[in-house]
């Protein structure tokens, strides 16, 4: 018999969700409305003067070669972080799921990076890959690789990608491990008895059954790559060398707070918000059709 919670008072359900609604309005909807309003204004850096300019800020953006270049940089960075982080996390989750002795120790070490703030992650990898002091830099030099991310754009991109993946790997690992442990072992054992090898079992049984988890993590990781990696870029490369690692979210900060162009920064934040919304809608409309929820 189905059991449902019933409230004796008509206002109690609204009172229970009111704190969450208030937080959402104050920290999500209100900043979004403010960004939309400021994106059609021309303001000085000190807020003493503003002029309504319609869509001039957006027109100037898409006529700026550096802004268009930031799109390509962000696309490359986001794909590398999202795909690379999920693939590596899934591999680690598969191996951790098979560990019998000391499994708790392995899982604890793999979860720890998520507790580290993005700034600390950026500083940590910056020191590890420092051209003069970094431990990993000396290893690369021993292997014959001339590593200096301060003057090499590809190496700088590699640095922030590694740092961003390392920061997010624990989050992905937790969900993948939970998904793997929810698969009935009898299905895998039956496939093994029928002669299916480990690779075939993974792609025909395991991966389809964790497709809801994979889809969820895909959405989360794309949003993470677009928004939550700002602190890593700021702590390591500052968008350099040149503009080689200036992703869209960092360009908003650079133009708004460093350049003092508040109207352009607001317009950039609106464009970034629209891009992420469109990507999420496309994923739910097309990618989710391949997800098996059975």
From TrEMBL:
**Lipid bilayer topology:** Multi-pass membrane protein
Where is the signal peptide, in residue numbers?
Answer: none
Main localisation: membrane
PROSITE patterns to which the protein is assigned, alphabetical: ABC_TM1
Q: Which UniProt keywords apply?
A: Cell inner membrane, Cell membrane, Membrane, Transmembrane, Transmembrane helix, Transport
ABC transmembrane type-1 domain location: 71-283
Q: Which InterPro entries match?
A: MetI-like (IPR000515), MetI-like_sf (IPR035906), UgpAE/MalFG_permease (IPR050809)
Q: Which Pfam families match?
A: BPD_transp_1 (PF00528)
* NCBIfam families named among the record's database cross-references: PRK10561.1
Q: Which family does it belong to?
A: Belongs to the binding-protein-dependent transport system permease family.
Name the UniProt record assigns to this protein: sn-glycerol-3-phosphate transport system permease protein UgpA
């Amino acid at each position: 018999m189905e059991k449902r919670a019933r409230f004796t008072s008509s206002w109690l359900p609204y009172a229970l969700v009111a704190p969450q609604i208030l937080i959402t309005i104050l920290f999500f909807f209100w900043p979004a409305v403010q960004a939309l309003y400021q994106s059609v204004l021309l303001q000085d850096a000190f807020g003493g003067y503003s002029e309504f300019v319609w869509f001039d800020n957006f027109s100037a953006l898409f006529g700026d070669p550096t802004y268009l270049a930031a799109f390509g940089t962000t696309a490359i960075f986001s794909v590398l972080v999202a795909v690379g982080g999920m693939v590596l996390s899934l591999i680690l989750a598969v191996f951790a799921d098979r560990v019998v002795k000391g499994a708790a120790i392995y899982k604890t070490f793999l979860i720890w990076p998520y507790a580290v703030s993005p700034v600390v992650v950026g500083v940590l990898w910056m020191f590890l890959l420092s051209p003069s002091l970094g431990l990993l830099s000396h290893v690369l030099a021993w292997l014959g690789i001339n590593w200096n991310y301060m003057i090499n754009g590809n190496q700088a991109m590699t640095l922030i990608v590694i740092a961003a993946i390392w920061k997010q790997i624990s989050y992905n690992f937790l969900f993948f491990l939970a998904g793997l442990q929810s698969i009935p072992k009898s299905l895998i054992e039956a496939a093994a008895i029928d002669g299916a090898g480990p690779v075939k079992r993974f792609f025909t049984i395991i991966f389809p059954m964790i497709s809801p988890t994979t889809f969820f993590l895909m959405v989360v990781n794309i949003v993470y790559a677009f928004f939550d990696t700002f602190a890593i870029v700021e702590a390591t490369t500052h968008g350099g060398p040149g503009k080689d690692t200036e992703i869209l979210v960092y360009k908003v900060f650079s133009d708004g707070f460093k350049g003092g162009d508040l109207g352009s920064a607001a317009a950039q934040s609106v464009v970034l918000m629209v891009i992420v919304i469109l990507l999420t809608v496309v994923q739910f409309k097309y990618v989710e059709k391949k997800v098996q929820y059975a």
